[in-house]
């Protein structure tokens, strides 16, 4: 049932269209602020207890509803699981945002391109230049918006998918805050991302250039055990062989800041940007196929229900 639910939800995303308008987490932000206003003065709040207080009630409520529906009929249980998974993806459709960006580039509309780019860019500076930052953001966002949600749904069901999405929402609002509560959110977020980033890195390796992807993973892992994003990005970029092309172009132009295909430092051609983005999106899609294939084998073997 897990595989069927995932395939059904992905089909809805692909053929019905983005459902971003249904994915609102304002209720959770209001609820978390309410908890913080009433409990932030207590010493227990400044640590894991505060995170548990915020996350446990909605997760427990979902678990109770699932159990109640399952006792009536498994069909209702399945439909709720699909609805929760669909709700937890995103929350914004990455493919739609990227399409807006590439269409603006093709049209030569710099303002529209900049606005669309800001919707998914996380890495404003990157060792491989602006284009490297764009590709790094795509790889990271693919994990946050899709792969991690699918993984925790497969492991813990709808509760796992909601756990990851709510944790990601907390992290998005508290990642620049310092304190025991914010640190606990970061720790939980990193813990949830640890297996998904490495499985995504493995998927990138299998779906792209295996040797270079594994080498990029190895270099990133050697820095620290808390390098989820580095592992994901280095393996993904090396699977695309972007660093090798970047280094070649940098040597040819004599500038260390020139991204692949650029004529001036930090200003790649629109055609090159679109080409690399399409390759990155292709890598993500092939990695998704690898994941689904493995899940199908595990389902047939009875490892996953």
UniProtKB/TrEMBL annotation:
The chain crosses the membrane at residues 49-68, 144-164, 288-304. It comes from Methylohalomonas lacus. The keyword Mitochondrion does not apply. One of its GO terms (biological process) is cobalamin biosynthetic process. It comes from the Bacteria. This is Membrane protein required for beta-lactamase induction. GO terms for molecular function: threonine-phosphate decarboxylase activity. Keywords: Membrane, Transmembrane, Transmembrane helix. GO terms for cellular component: plasma membrane. The keyword Signal does not apply. InterPro entries: Beta-lactamase_Reg, Cobalamin_biosynth_CobD/CbiB.
């Amino acid at each position: 049932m897990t595989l069927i639910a995932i395939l059904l939800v992905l089909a809805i995303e692909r053929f019905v269209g983005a459902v971003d308008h249904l994915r609102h987490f304002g209720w959770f932000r209001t609820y978390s602020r309410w908890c913080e206003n009433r409990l932030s003065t207590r010493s227990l709040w400044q640590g894991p207890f505060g995170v548990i207080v915020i996350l446990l009630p909605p997760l427990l409520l979902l678990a109770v509803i699932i159990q109640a529906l399952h006792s009536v009929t498994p069909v209702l249980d399945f439909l709720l699981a699909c609805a929760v998974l669909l709700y937890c993806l995103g929350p914004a459709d990455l493919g739609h945002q990227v399409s807006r960006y590439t269409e603006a580039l093709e049209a030569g509309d710099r303002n529209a391109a900049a606005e669309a780019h800001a919707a998914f860019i996380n890495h404003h500076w990157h060792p491989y230049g602006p284009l490297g930052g764009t590709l790094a953001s795509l790889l990271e966002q693919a994990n946050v918006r899709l792969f991690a949600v699918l993984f925790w749904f497969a492991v813990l069901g709808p509760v796992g998918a909601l756990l990851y999405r709510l944790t990601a929402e907390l992290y998005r609002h508290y990642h620049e805050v310092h304190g025991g509560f914010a640190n606990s959110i970061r720790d939980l977020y990193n813990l949830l991302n640890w297996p998904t980033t490495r499985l995504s890195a493995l998927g990138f390796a299998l779906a792209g250039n295996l040797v270079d992807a594994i080498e990029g993973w190895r270099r990133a892992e050697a820095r620290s055990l808390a390098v989820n994003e580095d592992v994901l990005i280095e393996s993904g970029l090396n699977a695309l062989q972007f660093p090798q092309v970047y280094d070649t172009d940098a040597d040819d132009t004599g500038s260390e800041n020139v991204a692949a295909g650029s004529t001036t430092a930090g200003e790649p051609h629109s055609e090159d940007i679109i080409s690399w983005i399409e390759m990155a999106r292709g890598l993500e899609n092939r990695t998704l196929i690898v994941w689904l294939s493995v899940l199908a084998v595990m389902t047939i073997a009875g490892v996953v229900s």
